[in-house]
Amino acid sequence: MLDVVDFTPAHAKLFDLDKFGEMLFVSVGQVMVERVFAEYSKPEQPAFTIFSDGIPLVCAGVWIWDLSHEPRTGEGWAIVNHVRGREEAFKLTKAVIRGLDVTQRVNNIARVHAPIPAENKRACRWAELLGFKQECLMRKWLCGRDHYLYARIYDA
């Protein structure tokens, strides 16, 4: 059973941060984790955590660029803990899609984009499963690394 709750910085303490190699980062890399748990957890920024048996599987959300304009645009982010098996991965993906859809409706978001390191093939595949489409390759973008820009567009 997956439980979806509003994200709080306390959820970060439940991740085994010594196992970064086993985690999947979408839009954020290891160097940006501190920023995610600090800035992205502001009350006005929508985010959620999905638990399974008390273990956080994913923290995800949308950083809305300008809260004063509608429809809004934001950057999607997710940090995924180790997932046990295909069935749990499938359920988790469906839950994140529902979470993104609710976030979009409640916050009047027209576009969510996610820059993903080009070498992170797992994150690219997962973004596509979540309904994101690859738009471009941003050369030497963050930390001098190439990133693909993925976007999910919501029609009015």
Q: Short summary of the structure?
A:
The chain is an alpha+beta fold and 156 residues long.
What does this structure look like?
The chain is of the alpha+beta class and about 160 residues long. The chain has a single domain (about 1-115), classed as Gcn5-related N-acetyltransferase (GNAT) (Aminopeptidase, 3-Layer(aba) Sandwich), CATH 3.40.630. Helices cover about 25% and strands about 40% of the residues. The chain is built from 3 helices and 8 strands, in the order ββαβββαβαββ. It has helices spanning about 35-40, 85-105, 120-130, and strands at about 1-5, 25, 45-50, 55-65, 70-80, 110-115, 135-140, 145-155. The longest helix has 23 residues, at about 85-105. The chain is globular, with a radius of gyration of 15 Å. The N and C termini lie far apart (about 30 Å). Mean pLDDT is about 80; it is low at about 20-25 and about 25-30.
Q: What percent of residues are in strands?
A: 35-45%
> Percent range for helical residues?
10-25%
* Radius of gyration from the alpha-carbon trace, in angstroms: 15 Å
The chain-level mean pLDDT equals 81
* CATH architecture label: 3-Layer(aba) Sandwich
Low-confidence stretches: 20-24, 27-31
Which of globular, elongated, flat, extended, rod-shaped describes the shape?
globular
| Tally of DSSP helical segments | 3
Counted beta strands: 8
CATH superfamily membership: Gcn5-related N-acetyltransferase (GNAT)
SS-based structural class? alpha+beta
Through-space gap between termini: 32 Å
